[in-house]
Design a protein that fits this description.
By secondary structure, this protein is α/β, with parallel strands linked by helices. It is built from eleven helices and 13 strands. The protein has helices spanning 20-24, 31-38, 53-68, 92-97, 116-129, 155-158, 210-215, 224-245, 263-272, 284-287, 294-304, and strands at 3-12, 16-19, 42-45, 77-81, 106-110, 135-142, 164-173, 179-187, 195-196, 221-222, 255-258, 313-320, 324-331. Helix 8 (224-245) packs across helix 9 (263-272). Bound molecules: acetyl coenzyme *A (ACO).
């Protein structure tokens, strides 16, 4: 049975850098509050007409393809993770399919929010293991700066999130012991309403009303403390679940790439797993939380800066809305 290997990674972030001081001109917030609680100093915001979820994905995908030495024509399937698709339907997979010279390949969207990219990678891994496809493009891309309100009533979430895209080319390999060793996927829907955007949704006869706008009911909601507590539990747990399958210990990891939820969450994972700083990736300071794009952005930067070497044991991990959480263990 073939296994799957990441052979190219790419990323794209919009040009516009938005600092905490920039946000403090739009709402009652300040650099100290944001840095102390989240570790974020700046994020990128998309420019309408220039960037979109699909456009950013295409740019990240082209870089990943070039690095893998592949052409768009070589790709057999697209798995696209996002919570902020250009349209409500169709999904972003097809919007990416038409942007590069892909064949008429299948393209699916994954709605795993912060865990979306790791779920997408797992889906790609299964298609490759069954032998159905040989080369799959996995993408995470988000435009979130327009989901949150840049105002006092939106400030608790608006300061945390950013825009960007990351991509990986996943290919079949017969090299023994190399590539994606395992993936672990979990969810607990009892917590769906603890981090969610209720409106516009299909539960109500009128999807959008003036009252919703007045009351701010279109804004996402997060129970920050509950998210924090559960993240602290599930990040280490899901990584250890993958490690345990191969009798590895925390100390066997060469690099942990967690979803960039919050620098305090990353620091707590590092402490719990007793990892030295060089074994865990944190770039939230520069991009904020980019949801499905955060793991591939961190993966791409880690690869570009030489933090991932051939033969390294690398874990990707994510936790977020759903609640959903997931990990992927990779022998690079
Ligand atoms: N700037 C300044 N003050 C603010 C802001 C802001 N942007 N947002 C809220 N405040 C105020 C609140 O109104 C409140 O004021 P009050 O005491 O007068 O009522 C005060 O700051 C404290 O608010 P809390 O919500 O209690 O802030 P807390 O200290 O819990 O920090 C945070 C909020 C950072 C979200 C925290 O709960 C946390 O770290 N949660 C983890 C969840 C997380 O990081 N999620 C990321 C996305 S989800 C994911 O990726 C999995």
């Amino acid at each position: 049975m073939p296994s799957s290997k990441i052979t190219g990674v790419g990323m794209y972030v919009p040009e516009d850098v938005v600092t905490n001081d920039d946000l403090s001109k739009l709402m009652d917030t300040n650099d100290q509050w944001i840095v102390e609680r989240t570790g974020i100093k700046q994020r990128r915001f998309f420019k309408e007409g220039v960037d979109s979820v699909a456009k950013m994905a295409a740019k990240a995908a082209q870089i990943a393809l070039d690095r893998a030495g592949k052409k768009a024509e070589d790709v057999d399937f697209i798995v696209f993770a996002t919570l902020s698709s250009d349209y409500n339907f169709p999904g972003s997979g097809v919007l990416l399919q038409r942007k590069l010279p892909f064949r008429n390949i299948g393209a699916i969207d994954v709605r795993g929010q912060c865990s979306g990219f790791v779920y997408a990678l797992s889906i790609a891994d299964q298609f490759i293991k069954t032998g159905m496809y040989k080369t799959i493009l996995v993408v995470g891309s988000e435009v979130q700066s327009n989901i949150f309100e840049m105002s006092n009533r939106g400030r608790n979430m608006a300061v945390i999130f950013g825009d960007g895209a990351g991509a990986a080319v996943v290919e079949a390999t017969n090299e023994p012991g190399k590539g994606i060793l395992t993936t672990k996927l979990h969810s607990d829907g009892r917590f769906a309403e603890e981090l969610y955007q209720e409106n516009p949704g299909s539960r109500k006869k009128d999807r959008i009303t003036a009252e919703m706008f007045e009351k701010g009911e279109f804004l996402p909601y997060m129970n920050g403390k509950l998210v924090f507590m559960n993240a602290l539990r599930f990040f280490p747990e899901v990584v250890r679940e993958a490690l345990a399958e191969f009798n590895f210990k925390d100390s066997d990891l060469d690099l942990l790439i967690p979803h960039q939820a919050n620098a305090r969450i990353t620091a707590a994972i590092q402490k719990e797993m007793n990892l030295p700083p060089e074994k865990i990736v944190s770039n939230i300071e520069r991009y904020g939380n980019t949801t499905a794009a955060s793991v591939p952005l961190a993966l791409c930067e880690a690869w570009e800066t030489g933090r991932i070497k051939d033969g390294d044991l690398v874990a990707l991990a994510a936790f977020g809305s759903g609640f959903m959480w997931a990990s992927a263990l990779i022998r690079w």
